[in-house]
Design a protein that fits this description.
By secondary structure, the chain is mainly alpha-helical. It has six helices and two strands, in the order αααβαβαα.
Length: 112
């Protein structure tokens, strides 16, 4: 399915695997983000999963809601983890509706 929507995507993912596993994934382990940092975020959050998504993604919503009480849920019918490729139109519509309801305002960043 990936090559149907992004020709050459599988081949590129294979080429990028070393970078992901050797650089990007270890860097995530060093990133400190938790409930204390989440408190500083007031912008609404959209949690998107597909109706066919694995349980780990659905269960992740509980964590999002605990860190970001302003989380809204959207479940895309007939899609799994690759929902943006499986059902791009309905996903784009849901994202557009969310952004219209919650426009992002420019907030000055202050030094901590």
């Amino acid at each position: 399915m990936i090559d149907d929507v992004a020709p050459g995507g599988v081949e590129q993912a294979i080429k990028d695997a070393d970078t992901f596993f050797e650089i990007e994934l270890p860097a995530l382990g060093e990133w400190a983000f938790g409930p204390d940092q989440a408190k500083a975020i007031g912008q609404p959050v959209l949690s998107v999963v597909g109706s066919d998504s694995e349980a780990v993604f659905v269960e992740g919503r509980d964590l999002l809601h605990s860190w970001f009480p302003q989380t809204e849920d959207f479940t895309l019918d007939g899609a799994g983890h690759l929902l943006q490729a499986q059902r791009p139109g309905p996903l784009a519509q849901a994202l557009a509706e969310f952004v219209i309801r919650h426009p992002v305002s420019r907030v000055p960043v202050t030094a901590a």
